[in-house]
Specification:
Helix content: 40-55%
Number of strands: 13
Largest sheet: 3 strands, parallel
Structural class: alpha/beta
Strand content: 5-15%
Pfam families: Anticodon_2 (PF19269), tRNA-synt_1c (PF00749)
Bound molecules: glutamic acid
CATH topology of the largest domain: Rossmann fold
GO molecular function: glutamate-tRNA ligase activity
CATH architecture of the largest domain: 3-Layer(aba) Sandwich
Shape: elongated
Number of helices: 19
Distance between the termini: 77 Å
Number of domains: 3
Main location: cytoplasm
Family: Belongs to the class-I aminoacyl-tRNA synthetase family. Glutamate--tRNA ligase type 1 subfamily.
Enzyme class: ligase
Radius of gyration: 32 Å
Oligomer: single chain
CATH superfamily of the largest domain: HUPs
Strand order of the largest sheet: 1-2-3
Length: 448
């Protein structure tokens, strides 16, 4: 069976580092095995789902280079959920409930107050047809819960966490459908995973207890003839920030914010691919190289720590590797491959290239030089000889003529030619400045 994974965001906001990581790992799990990676838009919550977020999710995945092999939308699949629901109803696996949110909250508080787990007491299972008829007559529609089978423990071998076991009696029967007929996430997700041939569900560990419940749903759906095979499950440890939960600053961790501040998609992927694994985080720009190391067995159980500083370091290291072709459309007018190559090592973000390019296009503002440096620079202007390697021949000629070496030789030249005392390799920069302009800069610094 073709390995099939899915990334299933709810379009209620922008993607952020947490769900980008989940998307990436699902993409890798599929790609590594020549399988399929699907995008499933979980938009059954009509009130919170927004079309603009759907578009942004697609855009972000394209920017990241995680293009799916197919896209599905839950809002277009409602008849499948209806059919599954009818099958579960016929099999006695869903039941009608009427408790209000306040009543449920009260029940929870009472149980918690007695030191008991806040499990739904299944009071509604005791209702008989007469009770339902009375509710209907009063205009009260039911919501529906899935009835867990308490017979056997629920067990699976988790791809990250190893063997897992849950006592179903310790779980609440989950609400699957609201009184207005709309769906909660659990059942549609199981229906879709079966219908789409999803072989591997890889998601955050906040879904572990959902998995326990969903395994019974999968089994009930398979038993009702509604699909093939229960998928494998793997739950990755959550991503946390330096100060704890990520949720507090999700805005700044959004894909859009990352793009705006000049983070390269390769940097984000290199970091997120390995964060929380036993492999070192390295500035690996090639996706195939990242894929080669991907293995769920390297995933740790401890929360993975996301650190902006680390992202910035990876980003700079990635920028230093990027080819001209990859950045050409983001560079200032006139800056060609040689310019990019000269300036690239000085950048943390591609966007800074324009600033550095001004050293080539000028005007530059050299400092005021001492008289002996002015004489030295005048000599430099005279000795400038435009061969294959003008910087090295100039330095050699000046060394010979003046006896200067090291900083005394190089610093006034750099300052006169660029107006700065550090920056790109002068051997690469000088040819870009050009002979006439270089001589003019040296003469004007000598004259000042
Ligand atoms: N839409 C669900 C979520 O955002 C998907 C969870 C899953 O991967 O099954 O949490």
């Amino acid at each position: 069976m073709t390995v099939t994974t899915r990334f299933a965001p709810s379009p209620t906001g922008r993607l952020h580092v947490g769900n980008i990581r989940t998307a990436l790992h699902n993409w890798m799990l599929a790609r590594k095995q020549g399988g399929r990676f699907l995008l499933r838009i979980d938009d059954t919550d009509a009130e919170r789902s927004r079309e603009e977020h759907v578009a942004a999710i697609r855009d972000d995945l394209t920017w990241l280079g995680l293009e799916p092999d197919g896209e599905e939308r839950q809002s277009e699949r409602l008849e499948h959920y209806e059919r599954a629901f009818e099958a579960l109803r016929a099999a006695g696996r869903v039941y009608r409930c009427y408790e209000t949110a306040q009543e449920l909250e009260l029940k929870r508080k009472i149980l918690l107050g007695r030191g008991l787990p806040p499990i739904y007491d299944r009071a509604a299972l005791a209702l008989v047809e007469k009770d339902h008829a009375a509710k209907a007559a009063a205009g009260i529609a039911p919501h529906w819960r899935f009835r867990l089978d308490h017979g056997e423990p629920i067990a699976w071998d988790d791809g990250v966490r190893g063997p897992q076991k849950f006592d179903p009696a310790q779980l609440s029967d989950p609400v699957v459908r609201r009184a207005d007929g709309s769906w909660l996430y659990m059942l549609p997700s199981a229906v879709d995973d079966l219908a789409m041939g999803v072989t591997d569900v890889l998601r955050g560990e906040d879904h572990v207890s959902n998995t326990a419940v969903q395994i019974q749903m999968f089994e009930a759906l398979v038993a009702a003839g509604l699909g093939g095979q229960v998928p494998r499950f793997a739950h990755e440890a959550l991503l946390v920030g330096r100060e704890g939960k990520l949720s507090k600053r999700l805005g700044s961790l959004g894909c859009d914010a990352m793009r705006a501040r000049g983070i390269e998609p390769q940097a984000l992927l290199a970091l997120l691919a390995r964060l929380g694994t036993s492999l070192p985080v390295e500035p690996i720009a090639e996706r195939d190289a990242l894929l080669a190391g991907f293995d769920l067995a390297t995933f740790g159980r401890a929360p993975a720590r996301f650190d902006d500083g680390e992202l910035e370091r990876i980003n700079a290291a990635i920028v230093h590797q990027l080819d001209y072709a990859a950045v050409a459309d983001r560079l200032p007018e006139g800056m060609g491959a040689a310019g990019w190559h000269a300036i690239r090592p000085n950048l943390s973000h591609v966007g800074e290239a324009a600033e550095w390019w001004r050293l080539v296009t000028g005007p530059v503002e050299p400092p005021a030089f001492a008289p002996e440096d002015r004489a030295f620079l005048a000599e430099a202007a005279r000795l400038l000889d435009w061969g294959d390697d003008p910087w090295r021949s100039l330095a050699a000629a000046l060394k010979e003529a003046t006896g200067r070496k090291g900083k005394a030789l190089f610093l006034p030249l750099r300052q006169a030619l660029t107006g700065m005392d550090h920056g790109p390799d002068m051997a690469e920069l000088l040819p870009l400045i050009g002979e006439d302009e270089a001589r003019r800069r040296l003469e004007s610094a000598a004259a000042a």
